[in-house]
Amino acid sequence: MATNPIGNKQNQPSPKTSSNAGRRIKLIVMFFTFIPLVVLTALMFILRANDKPLILAAIDYVTGKGVGVKEINKVDQGVLDLLDKTVNEITNVGKKIDDFTSELQSINDIKKIEEFISTVRLEKNNVVKARSRILGIKNECEGRELANLNMVDLDTAIENSKIKETNLSKIEEAAYAKMDELQKKGREDEEVMISVKNPEPKQAEPNQAEINISMKWDASTKTTVIQINDQVANNKEELERLLRAALGDYLKSGKDVIAVVNADSAVPDQEITDLSTICKNVQIEKINFRKEKGDE
What we know:
Elements: H1 15-46, E1 48-49, E2 52-53, H2 54-63, H3 77-106, H4 110-141, H5 151-197, E3 208-218, E4 223-228, E5 231-233, H6 236-252, E6 256-264, H7 269-281, E7 286-292
Parallel strand pairs: 3-6, 6-7
Antiparallel strand pairs: 1-2, 3-4, 4-5
């Protein structure tokens, strides 16, 4: 029986076949290692936690925020600054209301009352605008979880603005009431002045005679035309003569004599005073003046 000699290569395994098998094993191992990593990585981005990709949520967890902890929104700092400014404006109105109340008590002039009412109304409009700004911020942040804004504070500021507006409205009403009071008093004072300037003509008593004196301003000559019982006195001497003549006629009848002077509004007061002096010089002591509106 023949035997193969030592070193016969015919029965030895092929090195190439062994190498191919090793590569296949490596490929299989790489496939089952790499593919799960790819799938896992994709899932980390596809799957979400707290409205974030799972990988980002995992990072939050590692950094201390924790998976599933929802991040609370923050209001922009510019909005917060505007809110603080608006709330301060509303708060400062309280001091202005106290000042308005004190000022109203000291006003006794209709023009100043009108200016005061305009100022109060402007301040009230500013309060309304401030409340509108706060309502705008509230509507914008409604339903959001906020880290640096308390919605209760917004509601408090809104209610505070309504109180300030009401108080300003009360002051405005009080100012209108005072203006009506001043206007009424002004009309009463005017009626008193008219009554003093234009007293009702006194009826002649049975034992009394009247010398009727008319004083009218002539705008063309800038002089006062004086008539004594329908006779014109062209100068002071003629005026005295006509007065003495009328006085003498009435004294003969045994009656008391009174001079009734009707002067229009344009006659200078000094000329009325001068006439009064002339009447007394001719012994006419009783004088009744009526200053009326002229026919201008």
